[in-house]
Amino acid sequence: MINPLILTGLLAGLVGIVVAVFIYWWIDRQPLGDENMVRVWSAIREGATAYMRRQMRTIILFSLTISIIVALSVYAGYSVRVLPAYPELRGEVILESVLIGASVMLGSLASLAAAFLSMDASTRANVRTTEAAKRGTWHALKVAILGGSVLGFSVPSISVFSLALLFIVYSFIVGEAATPFNLRVILDSLAGFAFGASLSALFAQIGGGIYTKAADVGADLVGKVEAGIPEDDPRNPAVIADQVGDNVGDCAGRGADIFESVTAEMLGTMIVGWTVYFFLVEAGYPTIDALAFIFLPFLTGAVRVVATIPGVVVSAYQRSFRDPFEPLRNGVMASAVTAILGFFLAFYLLMPKVWVYFFTASLAGILAAIVIVLVTNYYTGREAKPVVEIAEASRVSPALTILQGLTTGMNATFIPIVVIAVTLLAAFVLGMSAPLPVVANSYTIGNIPIAKFIYGIYGTAAATLGMLSLAGIIMTLDGAGPITDNASGIAEMSELSSEVRGRLDPLDSIGNVTKALTKGYAMGSAALASLLLFQAFIQDYVARNPAVLQVNAADVSLSFSNLMAVMDYLLNHLMIMRADILISILIGAMLPFLFSSLALRAVTKAAWYMVEEVRRQFRERPGILKGIEKPDYYRAVDISTQFALRNMITPTLSIILTPLIIGLLFGGPAVGALVIGATASGIVLAITMMWGGAAWDNAKKYIEAGHLGGKGSPAHAAAVIGDTVGDPLKDTAGPSLHIVIKLLNTISLVFIPIYMLWLLQGVFP
Description:
The structure is a single chain. The radius of gyration is 26 Å and the shape is globular. The chain has a two-stranded antiparallel ribbon. A two-stranded antiparallel sheet has the order 3-4. It contains 23 helices and 4 strands. The protein has helices spanning 4-28, 35-81, 90-132, 137-174, 180-226, 239-282, 287-317, 325-350, 355-380, 385-394, 398-411, 414-433, 450-467, 471-493, 498-543, 560-572, 579-620, 623-626, 633-646, 649-666, 668-704, 714-750, 752-755; strands spanning 444-445, 448-449, 549-551, 556-558. By secondary structure, the chain is an all-alpha fold.
């Protein structure tokens, strides 16, 4: 019998997908506008669609290859470590290897679907937002928000629907799911889904980031600084590529990023919940109550979808407001209240004896999400103090602009890291305090029984679920950002009236704010999801150890006493004084810097070619700047496309291969150390780059609003240089690091059988 919680997740996911399709249909029925608008829109949509199709072909081929490698690697690891002792398990080993490999491919396809839907809805809604602006600001805002809500509904809905459907299918394939061994096989197979989602997300983000920033840097440096023409001026050959980049980078890339986070937190919670379930069943807890700890994410996933509805309705249909950000803020609050009520019911009904502890932990996650968004606004808001300081520095020299921006980015790391640390500590203490039965008291971590420690980890899982409960409405705001940005650009390039452009300008400004806020949210959710996946890796590494198996003629089971012994051994082997652990931490801390350098090098090279192409067109065709000759937009689009597709493979391979090499040499404990090192440095580096870059961007906009001399002043020229430096940091390398740390964790989960080979085991005492 299928657990009702899984069916709830399946149904909620299906409903969310249907709502997204309905909104998609509604957007398609809105008027496109006049001939000039349609001409500009067609160029943007064709460029975005062509790029996404080429990118999807590349990702599908790469993912197919990786899925085959994963299946063969899992089988090879088990063949060396499991089959010699238990040859009768060959059938089970083959089945698990095939399911994990298939899941990698399915996860990649699901992530691509979320990314493509996000991009397609954005490119359909942008020109319709421009047309709606002819009727008023509210009409334009409504179209933009509903366009973004396709992203807001599809991302969490596809995730919970896919995981629920796969769990049901795998339950029928593997057999009766209510046994620890079968549950472990199903969850290990679903880890492949999370890995595939991470893989596609990294490609989508880094490829889209390279594309958009190559175009953006080229358009700004030559157009604004050298030629002195305004932003989104149709005379700029890179302007269409810049508009395309907003869709394939900000929209498709972020959609895949949050899809990965939602999928990872559901899977990580289920794996940690499996250990809690095993402990509780051993202590005599009713099986149906213990299973709730595994299947809770399906119910909270349903709450996430439902909570998106009031947020979108409030945001899109509030007609009266002082500024366009007011309905968006109210929409987030409506979703937050709905999520809190939904989580209260979920924990109260599923865990009646301990609901207070885990519900409170989830509240800590929701509160952390809100605080991080507010802190993001403090550092990157249009007239925030750090932003004004960068603008003031631009009056003196571009060098001071760069220094002040770096100072802001580094300083911005303090509060978010403290918030994440306090949230984790509070959630851990709450989980550990829950009055759940304690078994195997002789196994401890310091003075804490391992069982209590695991309950504490489940508390951090509840906090992660809480933070991501707002994913739907946050993604709606994020999707609206590129739509309003494109709408403003289309109005400029179509030479619409100043009245229409005046209505779109505040929406464009709000779009930039929402993009910065959603990146802050994505960073916080990535941090909690990564740390949850790390704990899931530790527990799954223990559960897949051959010493835990008990095989007889009737069935395969797991030994609880052996599981405890292996867990105790593994935790002792994560001691920092061991040389292999220290080496792995250092390599992990270096990895985000290596990855970022590869990504930024790709942007630099692509931007160099873009700058030369724009200069060439201005030089060889002087009629372009006079407005009597049309630029060759498609040459710039082609440059961005080629460089994005060509340069997204190498950084990705650096992330995939490093944990495999470390795991083969030093074993699972070293991989855990590698992941911790990369997570710690990656989060801090991402905050520095994203918030520093966003502050540079808004310092430029602050000056363009008429302060410190306005457009064309020396301060503006210096701010444009700062913005040009910050753009690839905040839109390419920074957001990609969210995915890097999650990808490292999912790789660690999937390749556990390979780490069991541990070629240098015994070399380091």
